[in-house]
Every structure is written in structure tokens, then in C-alpha cells.
Amino acid sequence: MNYVNKLLKALKYNTNLNIDKWTLNNQVVSDMKKWVANIVPADLLERTVKDAVNSLMTLNQDGNFYKTFPDKVLTPDYGDNWGVTSNYIEINNRAIAEMSGNLCRNGLISTIKLLPAIPPSAKSWSNCIILSQIFPNIYGDGYNKPAEEENSIYGIKLNSGYSQNIINYEIKETITPNEQFTAFNNLAHFHGLKTGFRTVISADQIKIGLKDGSDITFDWTNNEHFELFIKAHIELINTGFEAIFIDSAKHIGGYDMQNYTGVGALPSYEQMQYIIHEIRSKSGNTHLSFVGEKSTGDFARYEKLGLSTGTGFIEPNDFHTVRDESIEYKYSKNYSPGIEVSNDNDEGGRSYEERLRRINNSIFAYEYPSDKLASFMQMEDLFPLRYDTNTHQLMMSNPSYSIDGTPFSHWKNLFTTDDGREYNKKVAELFSHSLNL
Predict the structure, then answer these.
(1) Beta 309-311 vs 289-292: how paired, if at all?
(2) Which residues contact 126 (CB under 8 A, 6 or more apart)?
(3) Closest by alpha carbon to 32, among 73, 64, 72, 67?
(4) 140-165, pLDDT tens digit by residue?
(5) How would you label 177-214 residue by residue, b for 16+ Cβ within 10 Å and e otherwise?
(6) Dihedral sign of CA atoms 286, 290, 296, 301 in order
(7) The whole model's pTM is what?
(8) Which residues of the chain have pLDDT under 70?
């Protein structure tokens, strides 16, 4: 089944593709690698899904232009341990959703529109998009709220489908939510990207939706809840996702709990080992990457847990520090620490120059390209946010910045304008030098 074509038909578009002139006028070309840059997100988000598919086809790395989207699309192949060296770029798909009045919807479609502006993977390592939201958030899912009102992505509901913020439920009878995820993953893979999603494991941040409409709090000692967690994640992996970013992973099994900021019990070490094993085994995917938040210190502990990499405390501002760490872990091909350009707790205030320096060190600080450490970036590291918000605020709340109640006004005002465009151009220059290493 061609799920990209199915999505286009569900949205009342035909499936015939055409060269996109806007893309040609804005593309960056690095050998066979192509993407659009010198942009602000509104440039892409105001376009249609059909425009996005035309754009991705126009950027096709193999030089061929297919009149319709291919029936079979393979993920970029970097072997089973690709996660050890990948650049993970988290996209807050809720923040770029369509804000119409007080409604929030179609975040996945917005992410599809943004795909042409994400640099594709390099010769020696992958770029992997991590989606911030998949499951419904506990309070206010499907609605935006003022910035001062909490509407956290870190509180999720299982056994209740997927978020109203993310999935287009108006077309669910024509293309199911799972098929919409598959279409997204096929488009991302076609553009040369890996994909993944964020999940939470703190029990009091998870609710189980019941058939009678009530919710109960998740319990790691309840076997039904435990198996439901595994099943929900396997179902998503089966749509084409290849990575799972695990919030609070450092503290699994009660490790370093004096610094734990989540709410509720965590799975035991053995439970998490079993979860990771079962997701790999039952999905049939040996190449999955499991990324642990702040999984630093006892690296052997995380490798035995089944993680591929984790956000670390390596100082990313210093080129030589990053390079020395990459040399130290050059033979660690099952697990190695990663470096952070920024993380989901970023409260802003970092200058463009510092962000660019951290990106530079993330993709160039090594002796050989095969030694590269994994890195972690946020949407803001590619597309700067407006000055009165930040990554963490948009994880904790879901404001609309629309002046007139329309989606385009929100997209235009969520990000910086002229300086953001210039910054995006400089990010592209860095990636363009790295993609053929």
C-alpha cells in the first residue's frame, strides 16, 4: 500500500507530482544531498501537503524525479548501531500544529511540510527527527491555552489513540492514524532521515484511558499496564519509527534519584531491559535506537540496559573537549554518550553564535567521521523561536501566537523573522560541509 498517495487522496489531492520551482529557488546542494534553507518555518508551513511532497521529490537524492511517490521506500541504512553516531533533532510537532481559534490540530501534517528544510543524513551518519508528541496529553489535548497555563507534553494518556493535536481525525475513515504515521515516515525516509518519538516513563505522568471514559494512573506493578505500554510502542515502531527517546532514562531502576525531577515511580532496571528487548523482538527490528535522557556516568549500565546513546554532560562549547571524548569512545559501537546542542529543558537566552558553535562541534569535532558522537538538538537550533518563548515553555504549555486566529499568523509569529532566516542559512552552511564526510 502506498500510504503517501493514500494521504494525498484523503486530502483531496491527485497523486501526480511536479517539479517544485520554489524548492529549486531555495535549495542547498551538497553533492547529492539537497534541502531548502535561508527560510523561516512559515515559508513552508503555509504551503500545502502536496507542495511538500513535490518539494521532497524535487530534492530527491538519487537525481530521479518520479511522477508519483514510490511504492517502496527504504530507511537510510547505517547498520544496526546507527544510533550511536546519529544527530537527533527534536521537532515539537504540537507547537507547529494548526492553531485555529482555540483548536490545535494536524501537527503531523505540519511536520511533513517542514521536512524539506531538515538537512538529510550524511555519508557516515544519520540525522534523525524525534517527534515531541504522539500520545494525547492529559489535560487540554486538542486545544491551545495561554502561555501561563500548563498543558504539558510530559503527561500522556495510553489506550486512547493518538493526540488530537497531531493526527488529522477528519480523514481517519479514509486513512487511519497509524497509516498517517506510516506516510510521514515514508516521506522522511525518502528525504534521507531517520525518525523517532519521545516517550515518558514516570508513572504519575501516564494515564490509562478506560472504555467508560474515565482515566486511571499508570502502575508499573500492574502487568496489564506494563504490557499495554509495550504494545503501544511496538505499534508505533511498526509504522516506521526507528528511535525512541526515553525521558528520565538516567533514573531507571532508582539510579541517582536525588536528581530525579519526574513524578511517580519508574520501571525497574529489569523491566526496562525487558521492554527494550520486547520492542526490538516483537517489531522484528534489530536496528532500533533507544536514547536515554541524561544517561551519563555509568555507561556500562546503560549499554546493558539496551540503550544506544544518551544525552550527556560533555561540554559542547569546546571543540577539543568534544574531540577528545569522541576519540575516547571511538570503539564503543553499542553505546556511547552524546553531546547536547540544547535539550527539551532549554529556557532560551543562548546567543546564535553559541548555538552555531555547538552545532559545529557536534558535527565536526572528531579525528575520523566514524568516531563522531551522537548529538541532540531542538527545533530552535535550526529555526529560532520568538524572543518571549523557549523550548521548555513550549513543552510545558501550548500557546497560540496567532494575532487573527489563523494558523498562518501563529506560524509567522512563533519564530523569529529576518535574523532567524539568516541564522538558518548559517546552520545550512555548517551541515553542507559535513554531509559528504
Answers:
(1) parallel
(2) 76, 78, 82, 85, 86, 87, 193, 194
(3) 64
(4) 999 999 999 999 999 999 999 999 99
(5) bbbbbbbbbbbbbbbbbbbbbbbbbbbebbbbbeeeee
(6) negative
(7) 0.97
(8) none
